[in-house]
Amino acid sequence: MLSEYSWGTLGVIWLGALIGAIASGGAGFAFVLAAASIWLHVLDPVRTAILSLASSTLMQLGTIWPLLPHVKAERVGPFIVTGLVGIPLGVWLLTRTDASVMKIGLGAFLTTFGLYALLAPRLPVITGGGRVADAVVGFLGGILGGIGGYSGVLPTIWTQLRGWPKIEARAVYQPYILVIQIATIAVVGIIALDRTTVMLQLAILPPLAVGGWLGWRFFSMLDERMFRKVIAALLVISGVTLVL
């Protein structure tokens, strides 16, 4: 079970869980990118992917309750429906193309957009497209979810470009991430889940809980402007992580 890991290795795993949980609790996304960038130094890619998805899902479940009164089915629905359709295509692309090239491309995009969002006085607001545009973003997010668990990146950016307040934005992309990740786990977990991964998941519950609580407290203190800057900073960090 866990006897194969040294205390130093377990410490790195706990650190990744804590940092990922703070990011997820504070912004509602970025757990996979934050935690996986640390875990890949001590865990194999398959175990890292399963642990990242499962932990991120737990984080979404733990922090979504305060958002439920703000969740509107008619707004989040188009994202989720098309996102579920996009997952199989993402998995198919993962098996047919060079995933490293796609990650570098996504990382470059996130870094560029994040820097722009950090430096620009304000982001442009896109009001056109309606639910069709939302559905397209959800579909593309589903593809990225199937490729590597990055389902929340594009919907998060899109909610910022829509100009939605921080609560309304999280009430869209956080339920979306939750549903897409559960669907992804249902596909990937059947193949790759083992007893050691389950034991690791149980072992990191404490840092997940502490990090999630700290992140949510941080989120509660942010005004709208600072929330958008935090999102932008996380996008830059996520992008650089993917490129490197």
Task: Explain what the structure shows.
This protein is mainly α and 244 residues long. It has one domain (2-243). Helices cover 80% and strands 0% of the residues. It is built from 11 helices and no strands. Helix 3 (45-63) crosses helix 9 and helix 7 runs antiparallel to helix 8 (166-192). The longest helix is centred in the last third of the chain and has 27 residues, at 166-192. The chain is globular. The two termini are 31 Å apart.
List the helices and strands and how they pair.
Layout: H1 7-27, H2 31-39, H3 45-63, H4 73-96, H5 99-119, H6 130-148, H7 153-161, H8 166-192, H9 195-203, H10 205-221, H11 224-243
Oligomer: single chain
Kindly report the average pLDDT value. 88
Instruction: Please tally the β strands and state the result.
Output: 0
* Structural domain count: 1
Report the radius of gyration as a whole number of Å: 17 Å
Shape: globular
Low-confidence stretches: none
The number of helices is 11
> What's the N-to-C terminus distance?
31 Å
Percent range for β-strand residues:
under 5%
Q: Which class do the helix and strand fractions yield?
A: mainly alpha
Largest sheet: none
Percent in helix: over 70%
H/E order of the elements? HHHHHHHHHHH
Question: What is the gist of this entry?
Answer:
By secondary structure, the protein is an all-alpha fold. 80% of the residues lie in helices and 0% in strands. It starts with 6 loop residues before the first helix and ends with a helix.
